[in-house]
Structures
1.
Amino acid sequence: MLKRLLIFLLLLSPWLGGATCGGADKFRSAKGLLGVVELGPFPKQAPGVGGYNLYISEKKEGPFDKINDEPVAGFTKIMVPMLNSGQDYYFRMTSVSQKDPTKESVPGGVFKRTAEPKKD
């Protein structure tokens, strides 16, 4: 559910960022969803590791939704946009096989981040 909401909001991002439709400003009422979380830098990839998959939830116990389409490389940072500013979100990550990205490790520990207001 959360993943679908994030995808929907990403599709709306041009309008949320300031574009208007026929002079209307109806999308600016979604200012509460302009929070972001920065994750990373991620650990150096061990031999055989092709990157990391990241998962998000609004609850510590889940359910968790995958937030990346491709494995995230080691030493990189990513921004998770379109979150409720001031709300706590829970994340976990897995490592993926370099040979077969569909094979993942057991998820690591859950960690919490609070969405910060988006800085222009």
2.
Amino acid sequence: MGDFFQVHTRGDTWELCEKLSASPATIEYNGAEPIMVSSSPGAVGDLFLYNSSNHQLISVKEPFAKKYLKEKLVASNSSLAPHVLKTLQNQ
């Protein structure tokens, strides 16, 4: 959606990403028809889970993401950047 994300780790299904940019919603044109293109949710620095097979982006603050991260990533992946681990542990 026009924003940039840094992938911190990849799981079997989900990737842990950090939002690095916040592009404003813009109007683009499909021929002569205007189309509103919105940016992704959240602010710069927010963490998300991303599923590339269905293009689903979920904030780590959502209940599903908290459970997944606790079970899969935080417990088994100490190679995450310190600021990412701190953010995840404070959720």
